Amino acid sequence: MMKRSSFPVATGLYVNYLLFGMFNIMLASHMSFLTEHLHTDQAGISLLVSAMGFGRLFTLYISGVLSDRYGRKPFIVAAGLLMAVFLVGIPLSPSFEMAIVLAVLAGVANSFLDSGTYPALIEAFPQSSGSATVLVRGFISVGAAFLPLMIIFFMNHDIFYGFSFFLPALIFALNAIYLFKLKFPDMRVQSPKKPVGDTSVSSVEQTGKLETNDRSKPRFWQEGLCLILLGFTGPTLLYIVQLWLPTFGQQFIGMTESESLRLLVYYNVGSLISVFVLVIVLRKWVKPVHIILIYPCISLLAFGALLLFKSGAAAIICASVIGFSISGVLQLTLTVMSEFFSQRKGQITGFIYTATSLSYTVIPVFTGFLLKHSQISSVFMLAIIVNVLGIVLAVFVNFRYSLVFPASRKLSPKIVLDTK
What we know:
By secondary structure, the chain is an all-alpha fold. It is 80% helix and 0% strand. Residues 190-212 and 410-420 have low confidence and may be disordered.
C-alpha cells in the first residue's frame, strides 16, 4: 500500500518534473530570442542543448553511485537549485561562452534529478513503483504543454521573454526549500511481490521460470545491445521534435512563430494522453516489449505524413500522434532490459541512460550542422531513418523475447486486436 506520509515528498518530486517539462524545451522554444541575445544562430542554440547533454553524460553514473551512498534528498535539492541558476542565468548571460557553462551545469542538474527522484519514488511507493515512475512522464508532458502557452501570452503582451525563464526558476528554488525540510523514505525499503496480472519485471521473471524447459537464455550482445541502441534512437526522435518542431512549422509549412509554438502544445498533449493509455493497457492487454515495437511504427507513419502533407492542420494532427507514440518508449525499453537481465538492473540502467545521454549530446549538434547546410526537412528525414532503425531493433528484441519467455507468445493475437 502507498504510505500517506510519502505523499508530501512525492508532490515535491512531481512538481520538479512538471517544471522540468518546461526546462527541457526552454531553449528550443526561445530559439529566435536567444539567437539575437547571444549573437549566435540556430546551430549555436543546438550546441547549448548538446552542452546540457555533455554535463548529464559525464555525471550520471557518479551521481547515481553517490545517491545510493548519501541519500536522495541532497541531489534532488541541489538539482532544483542548479536548474534555477540556469534559468535565471541564460536570459541575463553576457556572452555565449557563459551560456555554455550554464548549460553544462544544467546537464549536471538533470543527472542529479534523475538519480535522486526515480529511486526516491520507488522507495516511497514500493508496491506501486511502476505507476509512480510512469507518472513522471505525465508531469513532464503537462509542463511542456504549458510553456508554449506562457511564452505566447508574454509575446502578445510585450513582456520580456526572460520572465518565462524566471517564473519556473522561482518555483524550482521554492520547491527545493520545501523538499529540504521533508523527511525522505527509507532507502533500505524492499519492493514486495506483485499481485497476479501485474506487468512488472518480477511477474515476467516468474512467467519465464515456468518455461525453463524450452526457453532460450538472454544474450547481452544480441537483445542487450539492441535495447541499448533503442536507448539512443528513442531520445533522438524526442530531441529532434522538441528542438526543431517550431522551426519546421515556420520554415516548411509557413506558420507564424506563435502558431509553430502551439505545435509543441499538441505534441505534449499527445504525450500526456499516451501516459494514461499505457497505465491502462500495460495492466492487462499488452507487454512493454510489444509497445516498443508498436509505438515506433505509429511514429514512422506520423513523421512521413508530416513531410508529405504540407499544411497546418496536418502538422497539428501529426505532432499529436508523434507525441503519443514517442512517450514512454525509453522507460519501457529500460523495463524490457530489466526483464532480460534481472540480476544486473543497476548496470543495464547505466548502459541505457549512457546511450540516452550520448543522444542528447550528439544529436543537437548534428542536426544544427545539418540545418546550417541544408533545409529543415532534412532534419525530419533523419528522424525517419532513425525511426526505421528503431523498428528493426524492436523487431529483433520481440523475436528474442518470444524465445526467452515462451509463455508470452500466447498474448500476441490479443495484442494485435487491442491496438488497432
